[in-house]
Amino acid sequence: MAQMPSIDEWLREAKADPVFARCGMYLVHNGTVRETPKAEVRGVSTDGVQPGGKVAGMVFSYNESKVAAAVEEARALPGIEYVRVWLNSGELEVGDDIMLVLIGGDIRPRVIDALQQLVSTIKNTCVVEQEIGA
Questions:
Q1: How large is the angle between the packed helices 64-75 and 108-121, nearest 10 degrees?
Q2: Which of these, 37, 71, 42, lies nearest to 53 by C-alpha position?
Q3: How far, in Å, are 53, 86, 102, 114, 133 from residue 39 at the CA level?
């Protein structure tokens, strides 16, 4: 398990980047391990912990090249000027950080949409999450 970077430091670095003058908004996503199973909160069938059970943790991994491609795709969206992603890996416990995503852009609707798209792409195509039951 890795130490999550400082959100404050990331924002300081983003504001020091030359693209800062074109950014009217930054959004941060901090995903964490929760005790409620994915099958329960999303209403989908999984091979993890079933609805009604509790999650003690998860084994988390990701494909680095797929994440890099997803970041580049997000950077190419209209109005998006700044994208940064950190992902954890290994065996994580409830409350541990899974990911940190920072997106900066010109206007709120574009930044919100870009964050939604990037996090969805990462979660659906770049990572493997195997829940561990309590």
A1: 160
A2: 37
A3: 10, 25, 27, 25, 12
Q: Please give the Cα distance from 83 to 69 (Å, whole number).
A: 12
pTM above 0.90, yes or no: yes
Tell me: the pLDDT tens digits for 51-78? Answer: 999 999 999 999 999 999 999 999 999 9
Terminal CA-CA length for the chain: 19
Residue 127, helix vs strand vs coil: strand
Spatial distance between the Cα atoms of 10 and 6, rounded to a whole number of angstroms: 6
Adjacency order of strands within the sheet including 80-87: 25-32, 97-105, 80-87
